[in-house]
């Protein structure tokens, strides 16, 4: 619940101490560092690289720029900074720019403070409401960020030079909070100039008004390194005013990629019961993402977003839900047969080198097969699969596909010696037909990719695959 103090006099009697935004963040960050509490919840893979630099910048009271390619979690990281603010802060009731009752700065609040004294009305603002954000676009105007004349107030009879006719922009309205500008280099140069005073003198200038409006704000921006450092799309004085430049990156380790997918991918909102995506399939998607990111066929400057992996995992889950709906399966469990649909759905998220034009699908399909093979070697490479291989020694075949129900696939394969140990290696502790079928089909695909079985794939819409010797 918000505090109940409603007047300036009562606020002073309660012993409230005014602090700047940066002091709030510094004190709360230090408290979390000492207690071991999470400082930036939901941020994965930055613990030893990005976050130490960010913490130093915040402790130093610096405005900062996060530099990184698309899909590296810059915006997500910026939004976690709000959690370092005090939960509630007092403001002058009705103030457009969140003036502190002890030191009002706008014309209206200064007048009210002089008239009312200790009876100045106070309201409370939650930290979630102290965050402002603007995506920089070429059509962004100074009025959007800083402010402009409000024609409605002028029409009400006030003179054009009256400071109270100003309509404040996003930055002043986030006074005593955190303001973020995404894709900073996309701002026109004349708009970048309007931020110079905000960063250094901590005030704003609005048209021809004799108005000095000291602001208390932490300004954070995000940018692509290429746009920020090489192309000259940001003016040098603005660069100079940021206290810190912090580089972000894609997950450096497979474990971080896996943790990110498990945290962010949404398998529950696909209709009915949530889809089950076994760990080995999540690992395949993670390895696939990393292989695409490292491929020489892909333009490294554009990057491969973390959203690539999330969309891939959700597409696999959706394939399982679709199969369950069409075949009547009780539980939607994803299998290897759901992986091929990932390639066409994700192709638009990747920028290829010019030399690879026309081969995009072929490149992704090859990398997906590599991801499956690598996951198979790690999980079942040392497993005893003789019982499954023996099923094909007499020349029999097993047909699978994305519309083959789990029970039907298990019937076609027949009893598999060692299936329980195989499922245990894959982390499939359940006894459902869907999980058993997921393990068997993964083993069949692994045997094919390690050249111990052959596979024929039909050209039909269902992608039927026939495994044989």
**CATH architectural type of the largest domain:** 3-Layer(aba) Sandwich
Could you tell me the mean pLDDT? Answer: 90
Number of strands: 12
| Distance, first to last CA | 68 Å
Count of separate DSSP helical elements = 21
- Main sheet record: 5 strands, parallel
Task: Indicate the percent of residues in helices.
Answer: 40-55%
What is the CATH homologous superfamily assignment of the largest domain? P-loop containing nucleotide triphosphate hydrolases
Radius of gyration: 29 Å
Low-confidence stretches: none
Q: Which structural category fits the helices and strands?
A: alpha/beta
The strands making up the biggest β-sheet line up spatially as 4-7-8-1-9
What is the fold-level CATH name, i.e. the topology of the largest domain? Rossmann fold
The proportion of strand residues reads 5-15%
CATH secondary-structure class of the largest domain: Alpha Beta
Backbone shape: elongated
| Oligomeric status | single chain
């Amino acid at each position: 619940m918000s505090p109940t103090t409603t007047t300036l006099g009562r606020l002073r009697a309660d012993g409230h101490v005014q602090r700047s935004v940066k002091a709030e963040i510094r004190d709360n960050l230090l408290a979390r560092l000492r207690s071991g509490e999470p400082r930036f919840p939901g941020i994965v893979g930055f613990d030893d690289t990005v976050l130490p630099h960010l913490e130093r910048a915040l402790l130093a009271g610096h405005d900062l720029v996060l530099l990184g390619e698309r899909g590296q979690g810059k915006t997500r990281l910026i939004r976690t900074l709000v959690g370092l603010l005090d939960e509630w802060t007092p403001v002058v009731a009705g103030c457009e720019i969140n003036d502190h009752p002890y030191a009002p700065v706008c014309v209206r609040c200064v007048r009210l403070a002089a008239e009312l004294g200790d009876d100045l009305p106070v309201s409370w603002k939650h930290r979630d409401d102290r965050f402002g954000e603007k995506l920089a676009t070429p059509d962004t105007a100074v009025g959007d960020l800083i402010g402009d004349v409000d024609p409605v107030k002028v029409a009400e009879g006030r003179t054009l030079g009256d400071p109270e006719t100003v309509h404040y922009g996003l930055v002043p309205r986030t006074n005593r909070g955190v303001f973020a500008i995404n894709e900073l280099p996309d701002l026109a140069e004349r708009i970048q100039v309007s931020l110079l005073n905000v960063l250094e003198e901590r005030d704003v200038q609005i048209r021809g008004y004799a108005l000095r409006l000291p602001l208390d704000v932490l300004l954070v921006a995000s940018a692509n390194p290429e746009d920020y450092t090489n192309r000259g799309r940001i003016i040098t004085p603005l660069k100079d005013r940021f206290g810190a430049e912090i580089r972000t990156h894609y997950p450096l380790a497979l474990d971080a990629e896996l943790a990110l997918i498990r945290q962010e991918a949404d398998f529950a909102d696909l209709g009915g019961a949530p889809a089950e995506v076994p760990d080995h399939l999540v690992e395949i998607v993670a390895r696939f993402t990393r292989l695409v990111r490292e491929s020489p066929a892909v333009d490294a400057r554009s990057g491969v977003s973390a959203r690539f992996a999330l969309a891939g995992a959700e597409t696999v889950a959706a394939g399982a839900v679709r199969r369950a709906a069409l075949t009547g399966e009780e539980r939607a469990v994803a299998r290897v047969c759901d992986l091929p649909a990932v390639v066409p759905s994700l192709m638009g998220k990747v920028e290829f080198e010019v030399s690879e034009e026309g081969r995009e699908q072929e490149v992704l399909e090859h990398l997906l097969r590599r991801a499956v093979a690598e996951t198979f070697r790690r999980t079942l490479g040392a497993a005893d699969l003789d019982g499954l291989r023996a099923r094909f020694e007499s020349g029999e075949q097993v047909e699978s596909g994305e519309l083959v129900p789990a029970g039907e696939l298990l019937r076609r394969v027949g009893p598999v010696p060692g299936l329980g140990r195989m499922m245990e290696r894959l982390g499939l502790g359940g006894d459902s037909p869907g999980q058993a079928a997921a393990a068997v089909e993964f083993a069949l695909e692994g045997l094919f990719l390690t050249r111990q079985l052959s596979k024929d794939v039909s050209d039909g819409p269902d992608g039927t695959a026939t495994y044989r010797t």
